[in-house]
Amino acid sequence: MLKYLSRRLLGAFVILILISAFTFFLFFAIPQDPATLSCGRNCTEANLELIRNQMGLNDPVPVQYWEFMKGIVAGRDFAVGHCDSPCFGISFDSERNIWDTIMDRLPLTVSLTIGGLVIFLTVGIGLGMIAARKKGTLIDKTVSSASLVFSSMQIYFLGPIVLGLLVYNTGWLSAPKYEPISGGVFAWAGGLLIPWFVMSLIFTANYTRMSRSTMIEQLQEDHVRTAKAKGMSRKYVFFRYAWRGSLIPIVTIIGVDLGALLSGAVVTEFTFSLAGLGRLAVDSVTDKDLPMTMGVMLVGAAFILICNIIVDALYAFIDPRVRLS
Amino acid sequence: MTNPSQAVKAGGDTPGPESEGLSKEQGGGLAKAGAPAEAVGRSPGQLMWTRFKRDRTGVVSACVVIFFFAVSALAPVISKIYGKDPYTLYGQNQYGLLDDFGFPTGANGGMSGEHWFGLEPELGRDVFMQLLYGMRTSLFTAVIVTILMVATGVLVGLVGGYFGGKVDYWLGRVTDFLMSFPSQLFFIATMPVVTAVFVDPAEETPTYLRAIAMISVLWFLGWMAMARLVRSQVLTLREREFVEAAKVTGASPWRIIRKELLPNIFTPVLVQGTYMLPSAILSVAFLSFIGVGYVEPTPDWGRMFAIAGNIYENDPTYMFFPGIAMVVFVVAFNLLGDSVRDAFDPKSGR
After folding, report:
1. Which chain A residue has its CA at the smallest distance from B309's CA?
2. Cβ neighbours, 10 Å, residue A178
3. CA dist B108 → A300, B15, B101, B117, B315 (Å)
4. Angle formed at CA A241 by CA A236 and CA A247, multiple of 5 degrees
């Protein structure tokens, strides 16, 4: 188990290095002067020179990459001042330390993603199980068709509708805002309630469909039938035998969905005007703030990889075959 | 040589004795159709078509999907008949359509016989035309992206699966690597870079270059699932007797790929492709929604949501036209994908 996880961790680390190299060379080695690209329209020669110096553009690209990676581990000195490790450079736009800016925004995105994930996993798998248990009844049909419609909905469509219903028209809830969790769990959860709700409505649907179909499959398996025939209690068979088996494909889907989830967070942030990592990424792109874009990309990739490792660990936990291989 | 193998294919993915696959296939098709007992030779395509026609959900959703494509393709014609275009600022040209705050004066976002879906707040463009042309832009982009993704995926999967060895290993690693990318973040981040390859950043980017940039970014990170699917299919097919027989008779690898393998992976590729198109549309909409895709004045489906989100509090009607159109389209496409899969592979069930 430990060996399996450490191997996965090492693999993730290698992928992270590769992604960083890939992104770096993509940004800095294209047939365009990155300084001009990041300088934007009304660009003066002085600005251009300043940016070139800051980026160390006079060095060859591999050297620049080495400097960048070294900066992450050991910190780096810039014309505007020292940048502590982990140093992702300094923003062109605000001259702020990129790592600090990202760390400011990260908690919101993580809260959105993880909170949403917990809610829609519980609700989705639960509903799917109920639908599978009552297969063919009215409950099953309602759940199935509702999940088909909701999974085709988009956050940017459903979000404003929910906002309109619950905030503008009735005033039952206040508009979404982010309070750090240190300022009280209730304030934190209250502010993010609407985004979570909307994300859950959409993502729950997928998991409901998935867990319903795998659960139905599992309930028809031979070992489940045998367990029933032996006279085991319904509840025991349902949870210990069928449910556990049905989790494996669901965990696989979670792994695939994590990327979509993070992008879901980007759209959610836009729809509800929250300032998180996704907003930062888009703003840095519109402002042509290359180091910021790089930093967000890398942190986002690391976030997804870490989530993937957690999913893999879960996988090994549920399915003994993975642990042994 | 290819025919019997295809019939088995249509019966299911599991390799089994060919005669069994054939008889089951024909028996099932005939019994359901209630046709005379005499054995009529029918191609897998015909079998699939009869099965598909019997699936009411599938036919209805196919009609809806065709309707969407037809309406988008005929948008210029409809525009002529309807007498409006997506660029003219009707609300500003004609006094009384918009109030002092820029919102439509008429009820329900200014819906009337003149402007069927109402007017866009502030700019006062016709919503019906905006939606039609917006769908046209999105569908056009998404179709090209999907075709490119399918072609790349099939090519990579075929080469890796058929030739195996080192080629397969490295193609597999590249696929894995690209799959671990945070794709949506990557879409956002690379858009300006890719655009910069084509056009000087100091100049205004023409719309077609934006389209090319979007297509290439989405294409680059979109083909991996298809490649994996094709590779796994080819791996099992490669060991089958008819491929070996073709090899023994001295057929060239190109001929084997073209005549033996390609017809047999057509089904899964088609099914996967029908699932890829709606997600490509959503990705295009995503990019435009957050403002790195199409920009003003190009009408676009995703950008309509961005506009709608800003004005939703005051003019909720505007949002419902692109919103409902998108939900209907995506639902229809997903149902169509399920039906196509069922028609090709009756065993899978729902």
Report:
1. A160
2. 21
3. 42, 59, 16, 9, 8
4. 120
pLDDT of residue B113: 67
Q: How far is A28 from chain B (nearest CA, A)?
A: 9
- CB < 8 Å to A23, chain B: 189
pLDDT for the residue numbered B4: 41
The 10s digit of each residue's pLDDT in B290-344 is 888 888 788 888 888 888 877 777 777 888 888 889 889 988 988 888 888 888 7
pLDDT of amino acid A128: 85
* Separation between Cα atoms, residue B207 and residue B140, nearest integer Å: 13
B189, B308, B331: residue with CB nearest A285: B189
On whether the CB atoms of residues A68 and A24 are closer than 8 A, the answer is yes
Closest CA to A15 of A306, A323, A274: A306
Q: Of B182, B202, B309, which has the smallest distance from its Cβ to A262's Cβ?
A: B182
| Cβ <8 Å between B316 and A27 | no
The stretch B58-86 carries a mean pLDDT of 86
Contact B188 A285 (CB under 8 A): yes
Phi, psi of B228 (to 5 degrees): -65, -45
Predicted local confidence at residue B3, as pLDDT? 42
> Residue A154 and residue B282: Cβ atoms within 8 Å?
yes
Helix, strand, coil distribution of chain A in percent, nearest 5:
75, 0, 20
B194, B213 in Cβ contact below 8 A? yes
Positions in chain A whose pLDDT score sits under 50: 31
Contact A267 B309 (CB under 8 A): no
Residue B30 pLDDT > 50: no
Cα separation, A285 vs A292, whole angstroms: 8
Q: What percent of chain B has pLDDT over 70?
A: 81
Best to test chain A binding among B68, B185, B295, B301 (most A CBs inside 10 Å): B185
- Look-up of token digits 């330390």: A97
Residue B296 CA to residue B131 CA, distance in Å, equals: 14
pLDDT of residue A81: 66
Residue of B nearest to A29 (CA): B193
Q: What's the pLDDT tens digit per position in B147-180? A: 999 999 999 999 898 888 888 889 888 888 887 7
Nearest Cβ partner of B196 from A23, A32, A267?
Answer: A32
Average pLDDT, chain B: 78
